[in-house]
Design a protein that fits this description.
By secondary structure, the protein is of the alpha/beta class. The chain contains two helices and eight strands; from the N terminus they run βαββββαβββ. The strands form two sheets. A four-stranded mixed beta sheet has the order 1-4-3-2. The longest helix has 11 residues.
């Protein structure tokens, strides 16, 4: 049997106790565009074909968890500009800028309103 065509859209779903607060953060603070509004699920476009879905804890196929074992990583052209912006925003648990030579990135992390970690990074070498 032949495999069906490749997916045209990828969505990573995260679960929230306060969906409105999470939605406002991703829309107003990060500036992402709401692509699909399903009521209790808000799907934001991160990049071409890549999306993040915010789900009300009382709906969906999984439950809200205290321990967050998911990190959202956003690759950007200018990590330093993003870091300056992040400092101005007073984002929760904002790290210092760091460089990981082993994997070839400069990056920093912070948390969204319910503790999911976001990493903003730029490559430091070709192919990283």
């Amino acid at each position: 049997m032949t495999r069906p065509s490749r997916p045209s859209l990828a969505i990573t779903f995260l679960y929230y106790r306060d969906l409105a607060k999470a939605e406002a953060f991703y829309r107003d603070v990060l500036g992402l565009t709401l692509a699909i509004d399903q009521g209790w699920s808000k799907i934001f476009r991160i990049a071409e074909g890549a999306h993040i879905g915010l789900v009300d804890q009382d709906h969906g196929m999984n439950n809200w968890q205290t321990d967050k074992c998911v990190q959202i990583c956003l690759r950007v052209a200018d990590v330093d500009a993003w870091y300056d912006w992040a400092n101005d925003q007073c984002l929760s648990n904002l790290s210092q800028m760091f460089q990981n030579d082993e994997i070839g990135i400069r990056a920093f992390v912070f948390e969204d309103p319910e503790g999911y970690q976001l990493e903003i990074q730029s490559p430091t070498r070709e192919g990283a």
